[in-house]
Design goal:
Elements (H helix, E strand, L loop, with lengths): L1 H9 L3 E5 L1 H5 L18 H4 L2 H6 L2 H7 L13 H11 L5 E4 L5 H5 L4 E3 L2 E8 L5 E3 H8 L17 E5 L8 H13 L2 E5 L11 H7 L3 E5 L12 E3 L2 H9 L4
Parallel strand pairs: 1-2, 1-7, 2-3, 7-8, 8-9
Antiparallel strand pairs: 4-5, 4-6
Helix pairs in contact: 6-11, 9-10
Length: 245
Amino acid sequence: MERLVEALKNAKSVAALTGAGVSTLCGIPDFRGPQGLYKQPDAERIFDIDWFDRDPSIYYRGCRELVYGLKNYAPGPVHAALKHLEDIGRLDGIATQNIDMLHQKAGSSTVYEVHGSPMMHHCRHCGAGASFDEICAMLEGRPDDFVPRCAKCGGPYKPDITFFGEALPEQAFRGAQSLAIRADVMLVLGTSLTVYPAAGLPNLTLQRGGKVFIVNAQPTGLDDYAVCRYPDLLAFAETIEALTL
């Protein structure tokens, strides 16, 4: 990874885009993998905003473990490597497609969650907020289809995850775009770049003359435009952890 290390040392601005591969190293199932959430019978309804408004128990039943079990996971080697890269002044920020909050747990200070986050929930009726921890406490010991509801009006709490039928979080996506535009090095980590518009962020770096390095087990549609594509996230993390400037 000499070319990557050299690019990082010479870069004025470095950005990272992370996807599911970063989380699977922590033991979190890939939603689109063989055992993932999207293989469930009601998968197309779980993250659909119209279905949530009809019957929010579909979401809570489908995500009881995959979302509210996230509290049991710790950051993995790539999260730690990116925190190290920030600590040595070589990383401006992270745009992530993941909703597991692990970059924040690892201590990264600038994280744009372009698909939203369960860190906060809001009532669909009055807009009152509740934290992830508060929702987890409401779910404790309850049946799988229990729906946490607002104490003020009785409306269902919905996570600030972007559901199908909703727009991406504007502030987070604009921040991610700005990060990609000013980056002269973009690290694409653990994503096959198939889910748009987030997958288009590396193109913003390329259009401004920046370099893209991809670390992902499977090929991506951007491989021909990248300086290099590496298959091994663990090797990447070890290289970054050893990096000193």
